[in-house]
Amino acid sequence: MGAWRYELSFPPAARSARQDGRTGRDVLRTAGGPVTGDLAARRPTPGVRRRRWRWIRWSLPLALALLAGTTVGVSVAALIHVPQVGALANFTPNLVTQLLAVDGGVFASFARERRMMLKEGEIPPVLEQALLASEDSNFFRHGGIDAMGIARAALDDLRAGRMKEGGSTISMQLARTLFLTRERKWRRKIEESLVAVELEKSFSKQQIITLYLNLVNLGHGNYGIEAASRYYFGKPAKADTLAEAATLIGIIPAPSRYSPYREPDMVLRQRNRVLRRMLENRFVTADAYQKAVAQPLLVTSQQPEESFAPFFAEEIRKYLEATYGANMLYEGGLQLQTTLDPRIQRAAEQSIRAGLLHVDHRRGWGGPIGQLDDNAIEQQTLPAAFAQGRPVPGRWYQGVVLSADRGAARVRVGKQEFSLEGKGMAWTGHLHPSDLLRRGMVAWFRFEPVDQKAARPARAGRKAPGPPPAEPAMPAMQLMLEQQPRMEAAGLVIESRTGAIRAMVGGWDFARNKFNRITQARRQVGSAFKPFVYGAALEQGWTPADTLLDAPTGFIGADGKLSYWPQNYYHKHYGIVTLRRALEQSINVPAVKLLDLVGGAKVVSFAHRCGIRTPLPTWPSIALGSADLVPLELAASYAAIANQGTHIEPYMIERISSPDGQVLEQHFPTAYTSSDPAVAYVLTHMLEGVIDRGTAYAIKDLPVDLAGKTGTTDDFTDAWFVGFTPRYTILTWIGYDVKRSLGQGMSGAVAALPMWRGIVEDGIKNGWIQKGETFAPPPGVVFRDVDYYSGLLAGQSSPKVVKEAFVAGTEPAREYSARWSTITTLPWYQQRPFYIPKEGEKMPQKGGPPPPPGTPAVPANPPPGGEGN
Q1: What is the DSSP string of 663-699?
Q2: Is the pTM higher than 0.85?
Q3: pLDDT, position 852
């Protein structure tokens, strides 16, 4: 604003009179005549005129200055908005929703900002000291604004010609984080200062530090020192060393720039700067400073890795979002106690992946995932490089083949080169890398530790090994060629007595495909449906010792005509068979006959009471699992049988709590009686025979009572095994998402059962399945020794005797005679005269379809596991 000029105006004559010394009276007289008396009396004297002139000269600029100041003040007040700091008393930052496993560990979280809040007094002193030394050494001596700091920053800004240093105190930084933006303007600095003063008035110094360290951005989506410490160092903030604390504080000025993974050297300099400031402020001794500076920058590996139980977590995420909304899910800090058992989940994941790879490897090498030309080989950076310079055993990486000959191939993974030898690709059927690999091929590889002791057996006279090195050396690794399987697999573990889902694997890789085949898929279950047919029959008074004639038989199909002719797995018929034998060997025709005799409606009712939710038709083919079912409901139905006829609805969430501990949701079991306990136990006893003598004979050696059923669909498109121990019900499945054959012979016993076995073996090894556990019979069950082939009470000449379970009052009365040893070995059509059909049982008819050409010759009494479906 320019200077104001004040000037009184006089006539020209008056100005000239003043110049030559004449008075005003003389001038007036000269200008217009004599001065009258009144006028002369009203004229001020020379002294009065001087005082009036002096008052005008000083008061007018003051009034104008006040006016200008008021205008500027009103304008500034309109531009600068000071938030209501008192609202912080009820401030709740965005918190992380955490999913806790049964051991209390967090296995998954959901948040827009990864944050874990610490309470006042929980801030580690070393982190507080590092913060003070780095950001605001006068924090406890100022009231929110550090005048010297601002002056020093202003001087630096003037020298640089731009806003370079902010001079912000911790309080000012907190004000900016809570209420303002990060724009580098003086207006923001003024607002920051005003808010900082209000913060200092409303909160203690310790409260300000605690809030600051809980809210500060520390990069990679981590907010607050607790979340950052767990992310970078894999431990809580209270366990951080001096060097680690300095590293965290050093990231604060520019979290997007100071990344330990992208710019480790820059972060190391930042850490040492913080340590130097701590030394200057006497927070640490010179000796502690030297030791901390000498430490390398060690952070946990944050390379892409498979998340833990992602399909389980996704099911919960969808429920939370639908029930509580997205804001509550990602910002509300919900605490969920889930049913997940990490030991069981880990076993399921490993077994499902290993089994799926085994089946896929049988189909051979499918080729590389990509091909680079010579110009791109050196320039292309693959996404699967490992951190810390060390490969992780068992983890998969993308690699590019640099060269390949008969002896070995050179493969670059990340920035390092490795050698692939023939034994690392033996599963492909080729021992020479050059047979499969070419320069520029991109493929999957994994590293497998080499057992040095096994690789180098001890020799006579060899010296004893020396002392181990001071630091553990990286174990020797063998490079293995891999390929992602083209099919999918799934697994589920339910605690039968509670309904708690302890493990869930919805597919090969959640990152590849988020479709959960346990909860979202609908697949034909094949012979895995047969237990519901036999269970319904037991309810109607049938027993495991009752017999049916396995022979070519036609049934009324869905078209209302005699068009359905079920076939057995080997296209062979066995004649007279007991229900036990028919179930154990998974013989198809007796199962369809039994459904026809019991009634499709009763079978469907039994299945629905056990837990099948899918509407089911009553066609004969339903006995062989032609309906599409959800794997979760199939497993839950088996769990009802294992639980002696009590169905308990499966669940995943025990409790949902708010951040302050208020319980929002608590699980209470939903249970009902699905069948009589005696019936459920007899069915369980029959399913034990599937392992003892039937299609699942391969797991008979496991030292625990087991019961279950294999399942295979037409053309081997789906392979199943669903079974249970006295405590857990376990389901495994393998197939393609878009139905196609897994390959000839890929039955449930071949493809799905090994995965199931792997889960149980891990349980026995690690103690979550107890050796020697047995199925305890309920009241109302009796046992009798029965001839296996005829179903009659065992006699001295019985070739094969089993201890059979019966609902009390239904046990057989007739005793075995020697002639049955001859009858049961005859072809089915020669056994027919000795068989008395059940009332309503459909029998073979002339004109039935002939057996398919090339039907293999199968003995009438196949060995254990012979039927295989």
Answers
A1: EEEE----EEE-S-HHHHHHHHHHHHHHHHTSTTGGG
A2: no
A3: 46
